[in-house]
Amino acid sequence: MGTERVKNAAVAALVAATLAGGVLMLVTEEHDAPPPAPGPAARARAAAVAGAPASRAELDALIRDRTRWLRAHPGDEESWAALGTAYAERGAWWADWAALARAESALNRSLRERPAAAGNTEALLGLAVLAGARQDFATARDAAVRAQQQRPRRWTVYRALIDAQSGVGAYKAVHGALDRLTALYQGSQSRALAAQVYRERGWREDASANAYDAVAAAAGTTERAVALRRLGDLAWERGEPREAVAGYDAALRLAPELHPARAGRARALAALGRTDAALAEYRAALTRFPLPEYALEAGELYESLGRHEEAEESYAAVLETADRAERYGVDQTLTRGRYEADHGDPDEAVRLLTDAWEAGRRSTQIADGLGWALYRAGRADEALPYAKRATKEGLRSPLFAYHRGQIERSLGLYGSARRNIGTALRVNPFFSPLLVPPARSALASLGEPPGGGPRRMTGREALYPAGRGRQGAAGSRWWGSGGAR
Predict the structure, then answer these.
(1) Domain of 296, in residue numbers
(2) What is the reported pLDDT for 454?
């Protein structure tokens, strides 16, 4: 490429950008060349260098810039990798599924120019991005591991590993990758990733502290908006909808296109009883970003309000948008499974989620979904181990706790059922407009635990005459071998 390639390496090295939660990250740090002319492409480069999110306009500017460059320099494997990864990010972030095919084409071209075995780390990370966008986390992990072997001191490699390992449920590996990442890099995005990992582990205070640090350290507008949206998510999960709305509002003022913040705002508004405003937010999100999970949430809100015709329209949209995503290779197993379990064919949900589990996709979300699908299909005994796994990995999800509690209730494990359904309502008393009423009803039907405490608690129960200190022992599995132990 000669001198011209070196002079343009600053944009070419926008480079091996990698997507993790919708961010553009620089993975080729060694080039030293003048930045592009001021404008969106330059801002995208600055965001990439910091490992920070780029706006859609900035990302599109990068795509245009690399496309122009490659017309004249078709042998530049780094620019093909940058272009492919940028397309993958656009597909994942903006539900532009057609962009994923362009991403695959560009990344394959990069690998033809320079094979992975010859050290094309940028293309490997681009493949990890693409596979993650398609929810193919096993492939994403394989690509990220190969990239790590080539460049073990590049921090963005560990970001790709964290996302992929989370997707397959390898949570110990996630923590190891975070330790390596934080040893290499201490910036805003390191704090954001720590918040994500600590949330999955159930360490809410640590997650919140790191999320606030990420906001304080954010440099660009979009980076700050994404960090504020994360604060909104954490507030929502704590059952604090007013604080969540404040976080989402702050994020949307900076980045009105940030659709996860808009959908989060809809959830929080529904919890506050502002259902018309919540439905308007769902419609706004779905108009530009037709994601199946948003259609499912909107349908359940409509159903909770008794607006069944509109609920059915939303449920139909779940299937339509999932079909469209799948035509471009985006796996929709989890959303389809949740839809079928509660609103369609539970046996189909079991089939879908069992296939995912057996293929190695063993995240807490898949475990919970499979357990609930088995329960809804009348197979509660088989469901319980999956529900237990989902609640024991660390993530403090009220939905998971509710699902486990209802499964246990059906099996007569009343003490454990009472504890888990109660936990769901304590963690977030608004966790689902459709499920909170049955959760309250189930908890009321279970009543208060009988007095006297469980047997074999102290080892001194034999000192008491029969019937004293063991009230309620007869006829209740809560006492003894049931769920209270």
Answers:
(1) 290-331
(2) 56
